Amino acid sequence: MDLFEYAYKNQKKEESINPNIEKPLWKNSQYDFVSTLEELKQIALECRKCKLCLTRKNVVFGEGNPNADLMFIGEGPGKTEDETGRPFVGLAGQLLTRIIENGLKISRENVYIANVVKCRPTVEMKGEKDRPPDEEEVNACSPYLIRQIELIKPKIIITLGNPSTRFLLNTKLGITKLRGNVYYYKDIAVVPTYHPSFVLRNGGENSPLKKDVWEDMKIVLKLMQDLRIKSYKINDK
Ligand code: SF4
Questions:
Q1: pTM exceeding the 0.85 threshold for the entire prediction
Q2: Ligand 1 atom 2 nearest Cα
Q3: Which overall architecture, per CATH, does domain 24-226 show?
């Protein structure tokens, strides 16, 4: 981190942390001994630390640029992700890709996309209807996410929905209250917004929530400008 970035972030932290938010938990990963994302992925692919291993088809570790400035974190894989082993590739994934590429003018390959849990959580473990991960699953799986963040070292994290936002900011507040502001996890700016699935469930392609997501992306664009993050053109790696 250069001097400019350090001074900027400290000033922003002073200005923008919501005083109502609980102190973020600066959790340590139990995978400090792992030095590459690939090594961490190989461990996760064999993982059986929580009950989600019983019903998964694939572990969805995450994908993207290992040196990304921007990292997007959702809650967990859905049906298509479970089948393909890739994050955000269903309908919600297509919306996320449009947000990244049309809104932030950065190619999807140049950001990193992950989830709080790496295996698909479904209602009553039936593999039919998705649900958010429970606390036990988040606790079991989060060391992978923490180490992913430590290895990637993004400058901005965009949390998508409640589980990732609540986990990183260590709060019980909901996304509706939290979005629209910048918070910090360690020294990384965190911008919470709605999960693309939630947007699609509330009005589909004409969802009124899209306007809120765009307002949040304007916050990200401003941060990118302030932190001198280059806006890569599509396919310009
Ligand atoms: S969700 Fe995470 S902790 Fe649970 S089995 Fe999958 S990789 Fe392991």
A1: yes
A2: 141
A3: 3-Layer(aba) Sandwich (3.40)
